[in-house]
Amino acid sequence: MSEPSPVISTDPAPAVDEAYWSAIAAATAIRTGRISSREYLEHLLDRIERLNPPLSAVVTLDVERARREADAADRAIAEGGELGPLHGVAMTIKDSFQTIGMRTTSGAPELSGHVPEVDAVPVARLRAAGAVVFGKTNLPIYAGDTQSYNEVFGQTNNPWNLERTPGGSSGGSAAALATGLTPFELGSDIGGSIRGPASTCGVFGHKPSYGIVPALGQIPGPPGTLTQADIAVAGPMARTVEDLELGLDILAGPDEWHAPGYRLDLPPPRHEDISDYRVAVWFDEDSCPIDDRVRERLEAAAETLEATGATVDRAARPDFTFDYATRVFGQLLGAAMCGGFSHQEIEELAVRGLREEEEGALAARWASQRHRAWLSANERRLQMRRKWHEFFKEWDAVLLPSLPTTAIPHDHSEPMGARRITVNGEERAYGEQTLWVGLTGVAYLPATVIPAGAAADGLPVGLQIAGPFLEDRTTLDLARRLSDRIGGFERPPGY
């Protein structure tokens, strides 16, 4: 993929608070002299000082270094230097991605003093595009929960309701975006860690097709790990689809091992008009029902799409069941999540997995499965990918829930598997929060989340738009066109 050129906003002087400029608008304002990089940075730092304490979204700052980099960005403009598409734009990064010279903990006490000597690959690509990285955002320990809290930095709260979680694991990222503390974020997603927080905080997120964004330098695994975990991706989070598109342009491309011989050339969107899209709608599953308040917003979005003239079908499905797909997802996710475990920990999980009556026994069995069991699950995954491929010959995209509910109340009780969520007044398994996102994640599909408005409880709802493998530009294009018609990002009250 060729280097992205600077994107010039069509609005050279956005009529909103600078904190809520898109990343593209901020880059344009800095490049054209409306605001300096240093002034923009200071504006965000001031907001963090005033607004972050009750949120605890931003957990590490490197102010002096950021000021030096912002000043250097301003000098480059004055000197007529070459400018990247994010030149001088201050931003934060999820604390699972290593940042050179800036503490990176992944929420783990044993890494509370870890200061990397290299950037994670996605971070390096954002810096090369001109971004000024000034802070880190909170997450659960080792990015392993659908809430964002840890022993190092404590709990991050949802700006729409401080008694609720912003989701996880990119919860700090989503909360910071929603409150104008950063214009752009780098998230990661293995079980909905971009898509869930984007939904609960009312922002945009894109889970790329697996493998197109190198994630080397993310924790877990331990610092120095060279393996990219199965299912896991790095991707952009923002307040506009245009910023997601720019972020994907910057982040995607072969890693240094493949760059000598490989190039990434993602196909363009399938259509030029929203009315030409053929879209399946998949909102119903008895084994993972969604709350009626969520359904109301999702159905409204689907009806809006239908009103544009797009072909919308509520019965079209790939040739496998939801339950089959999510079971394969659970088995492969269990293996992917334990890559950094010790031999003793794996053996202990194997023993737990034999105790059928014990809470979490199935997850323990998946985490400790033999390689031959993983190979069987992987073959089932590949068969599903083939069936998705056939499905997308007739359909361009599928609309899905991101989560069964709006943001849930904080619940840090252990064991995690015993926690419950409430759907239409009924207690359901905590793990159901990962099933709708796992349906697409296990098959490596791209998926874009857009805000679908606030539910009757006043909390945001996100709509997941999934599409064919490597056709990220199709899900992003449909997301942009539909978002333009249903309202887009809204500020949380008080911010």
List descriptors.
alpha+beta, 495 residues, single chain, 14% strand, globular, three-stranded mixed β-sheet, 14 helices
What does this structure look like?
The structure is a single chain. The protein is of the alpha+beta class and 495 residues long. The strands form four sheets. An eight-stranded mixed β-sheet has the order 6-8-7-14-15-11-9-10, sandwiched between helices. A three-stranded mixed β-sheet has the order 1-3-2. Helix 7 runs antiparallel to helix 14. About 1% of the residues have low confidence.
Question: In a few lines, what is going on in this structure?
Answer:
The protein is 35% helix and 14% strand. With 495 residues, the chain is of the alpha+beta class.
Give the topology, please:
Elements: H1 23-31, H2 37-55, E1 58-61, H3 63-78, E2 90-94, H4 121-128, E3 132-137, E4 149-150, E5 154-155, H5 171-178, E6 184-189, H6 195-201, E7 204-207, E8 233-238, H7 241-251, E9 278-281, H8 292-307, E10 311-313, H9 322-337, H10 343-353, H11 361-367, H12 371-394, E11 397-401, E12 420-423, E13 426-429, H13 435-441, E14 447-454, E15 460-466, H14 472-486
Parallel strand pairs: 2-3, 9-10, 9-11
Antiparallel strand pairs: 1-3, 4-5, 6-8, 7-8, 7-14, 11-15, 12-13, 14-15
Helix pairs in contact: 2-3, 5-6, 7-14, 9-11, 9-12, 9-13, 10-11
Determine the structural class based on helices, strands and strand pairing. alpha+beta
| Main sheet properties | 8 strands, mixed
Mean pLDDT across all amino acids: 94
Strand order of the largest sheet: 6-8-7-14-15-11-9-10
Report the total helices: 14
Q: Which strand-content bin applies to the residues?
A: 5-15%
Cα-based radius of gyration, to the nearest Å = 21 Å
What is the CA–CA distance across the termini?
A: 38 Å
